[in-house]
Amino acid sequence: MNLMELLPDYYIGNKTMEELQGILATDINSLVANIGETIDQCFIGTATSLLSRYEKIYGIQVDVSKSDEFRRERIKAKIRGTGTVTKDMIRETASSYSNGEVEVIEDNANSSFKVKFIGTKGIPANMVDLTLTINEIKPAHLSFSFEYTYNIQSMLKQFTHQQLSAYTHKQLREGDLT
After folding, report:
1. Per DSSP, which regions of 6-49 are E strands?
2. How far is CA 172 from the centre of its chain?
3. CA atoms of 157 and 154, how far apart (whole Å)
4. What is the pLDDT of residues 83-98, one digit of tens each?
5. DSSP string spanning 95-146?
6. Closest Cα to residue 77, out of 87, 65, 91?
7. In terms of Cα–Cα distance, which of 144, 106, 103, 146 is closest to 122?
8. % helix, strand, coil for the chain, step of 5
């Protein structure tokens, strides 16, 4: 930004005014560049340097070795988990960790519930942190377990042994086969 353009013409050629406006322009340009970063820190979805502050506010142990995206998801899950615990709250929390559809199956007779991963095959990443989060939000008297989805033999019957030999065991259990 050239501030001299905003002043009357009689300041053109005035070395003192040009130097002063140059200094002010540098400061203004710096402010404009930094305001976006400052605004980003105000929102969990874009925060970076203030993530530890949000983690402390929500009682989450700060772990800077984790990625910013993971830390954001954990904070968001904690926010969703605030208030009265419902089946939907647990489902949404688990969904945020697995990036897939989740079903929560209640077993009231045994004071427990099961978190079933429908939209993700195999064991989703970050199960340790999901377990911690569920333990933080669920009532203390309830126990819970996880159920995972895998490809089963009847799904594989349509393929020949030759076709299946192109896949690893993990891909056969958890992959999308075509």
Report:
1. none
2. 28
3. 5
4. 678 899 899 889 888 8
5. HHHHTS-EEEEEEGGGTEEEEEEEEEESPPTTHHHHHHHHHHHS-TT-EEEE
6. 91
7. 146
8. 50, 15, 35
State how far the alpha carbon of 151 is from the alpha carbons of 96, 117, 146, in Å. 23, 13, 17
Per the structure block, which two tokens stand in for 15?
């070395």
At position 132, the amino acid (one-letter code) is: L
Residue with tokens 């990443």: 125
> Residue 145: phi, psi to the nearest 5?
-145, 170
C-alpha distances (whole Å) from 75 to each of 12, 54, 104, 134 are 54, 7, 21, 13
Instruction: Look up residue 160 and give its amino acid.
Output: T
The answer to whether 112 and 142 are in contact (CB under 8 A) is yes
Which residues, 6+ apart, have CB-to-CB distance to 113 below 8 Å?
A: 87, 90, 104, 105, 106, 107, 142, 144
Distance of CA 143 to the CA centre of its chain: 25
Does the predicted TM-score (pTM) go above 0.70?
no
Provide the pLDDT for residue 114. Answer: 97
